[in-house]
């Protein structure tokens, strides 16, 4: 189990992580939050587990993670974001990327819409879901970071990595968790204060997908072309190889030097 005292001593937040529920094993931290009763649904509540029996990701993929080696957690937020909600994927990946860089002295990259990459491999996956508890609307930010796992299943071995694998040092999961929560709250406050433009610029500076040929998987088709811009709402402006511009709100980017989890 993570040491709550260490986490609390590093937290600088007002609401995120002020309440943390810890589990040894759970089906999925996202699912746990979806099933809360309204009187349990505290804004900023974090659920963290050492293992998930039904961890899942975007496109209904499974999220596998060895017990006790990584970070698996979800943050519950009251949905009072109106339109700016579409920027939450970007700001979450930026928060995780910056937190990893500070704790592990790395140079992570963000990949649209919300992956974090280190040395061309995926180190963090983010699953954002909306949910209603009674009549109140919430956002669940589910985050899986590969921290101290060395062995990965064969099918993702060449696409996934961990901090330990890349830097050769064990990293304190408590320090990393608090740093992620600190950044997350900071960015959410910026979003509320309409500082979205700065956040998008910061995200773009942490992304290497511009000015090169990439593929975007759109469920039913794959587009090849160039990433041109990130719009104010977080959508991706994309130019296909035959010069057509498309605005994408969802999808999965493959940079050709990258492996995709
Ligand atoms: C993805 O890359 O597709 C997203 C993966 C998200 C995994 C995290 S782990 C904690 C939380 N609980 C889940 O079941 N999923 C998210």
Layout of secondary structure:
Elements: H1 4-10, E1 20-23, H2 29-34, E2 46-49, E3 71-78, H3 88-104, E4 109-111, E5 115-118, E6 121-133, E7 136-145, H4 163-167, H5 173-192, H6 196-205, E8 213-217, E9 222-230, E10 236-240, E11 245-248, E12 252-255
Parallel strand pairs: 1-2
Antiparallel strand pairs: 2-3, 3-7, 4-5, 5-6, 6-7, 8-9, 8-12, 9-10, 10-11
Helix pairs in contact: 1-5, 3-5, 3-6
Bound molecules: biotin (BTN).
Output the radius of gyration.
Answer: 18 Å
Termini separation (Å)?
Answer: 27 Å
Bulk shape = globular
Report the average pLDDT across residues. 94
Keyword list:
261 residues; alpha+beta; BirA Bifunctional Protein, domain 2; SH3 type barrels; five-stranded antiparallel β-sheet; 6 helices; 12 strands; binds biotin
Task: Describe the structure in brief.
The protein has 261 residues and is an alpha+beta fold. It has six helices and twelve strands. The strands form two sheets. It has a seven-stranded mixed beta sheet. A five-stranded antiparallel beta sheet has the order 11-10-9-8-12, with no helix packed on it.
Describe the protein.
There is one protein chain. By secondary structure, the protein is of the alpha+beta class. It has 2 domains: 4-205, BirA Bifunctional Protein, domain 2 (2-Layer Sandwich); 213-259, SH3 type barrels (Roll), CATH 2.30.30. It is built from 6 helices and 12 strands. It is globular and about 55 Å long. The mean pLDDT is 94. The chain binds biotin (BTN). Biotin binds at residues 28-30, 52, 55-58, 61, 63, 72-74, 125-127, 142-144. Biotin is lined by residues 28-30, 52, 55-58, 61, 63, 72-74, 125-127, 142-144.
